[in-house]
TrEMBL record:
InterPro entries: ASHA1/2-like_C, START-like_dom_sf. Pfam families: AHSA1. This is SRPBCC family protein. Residues 17-139 form the Activator of Hsp90 ATPase homologue 1/2-like C-terminal domain. The lineage of its organism: Bacteria, Pseudomonadati, Bacteroidota, Cytophagia, Cytophagales. Gene3D superfamilies: 3.30.530.20. Belongs to the AHA1 family. It comes from the Bacteria.
C-alpha cells in the first residue's frame, strides 16, 4: 500500500473457517450488520455492499441508545475474490484487506491509513475489536 504522511496501521485475525465462507460472511450486507461494531453497546443497523471496482460499501454504526452514530463509506479500488480488497474511504484514506488461506483456516490482515484526529492506539484497538467481533461471529456460523 502506498504511504503518505499518514501512518499505516496493521491488524489481523485467524478465523477457523475456509476462505470462501469467511469471504461471504465478511462481505454480505446481512452478515455485516451482525458483526460490524467494536463494543456490545453499539450496533450496525444497516449495510450495503456493491463488491466490485467502483462499487460502494456503506454501513451505519451507532450506539444502541441513539446517543451517537456515523456512516462508514468507501469506494472499491480492487477486488480479487477470496484474496484481496482495497478501498478508499470518503476522507481519502486507503484500506487493504488480505484473505490468506491456511489449511482450512483464513487469516485476515487489514492495513489502513490512520486518521490524524485520534491516537494511533485507539484506532488500532477499535479496528481490531471489530475484526475480533467478526472472528467470533464467523466461527459461530462455520
Amino acid at each position: 500500500m502506498k504511504t503518505t504522511n499518514k501512518p499505516i496501521i496493521t491488524i489481523s485475525a485467524v478465523i477457523a473457517s475456509p476462505v470462501e465462507k469467511v469471504w461471504e460472511l465478511y462481505n454480505g450486507p446481512a452478515h455485516i450488520t451482525q458483526w460490524n461494531f467494536a463494543i456490545p453497546e453499539w450496533h450496525c443497523p444497516k449495510a450495503e455492499n456493491d463488491l466490485r471496482i467502483g462499487g460502494k460499501l456503506c454501513s451505519r454504526m451507532e450506539a444502541k441508545d441513539g446517543s451517537f452514530g456515523f456512516d462508514f463509506e468507501a469506494t472499491y479500488d480492487e477486488v480479487i475474490p477470496h484474496q484481496k480488497i482495497v478501498y478508499t474511504l470518503t476522507d481519502g484514506r486507503k484500506v487493504m484487506i488480505n484473505f490468506d488461506e491456511l489449511e482450512g483456516k483464513t487469516k485476515i490482515t487489514t492495513q489502513f491509513q490512520a486518521e490524524l484526529e485520534n491516537p494511533i492506539e485507539m484506532q488500532r484497538d477499535g479496528w481490531q475489536a471489530i475484526l475480533n467481533n467478526f472472528k467470533n461471529y464467523a466461527e459461530t456460523k462455520s
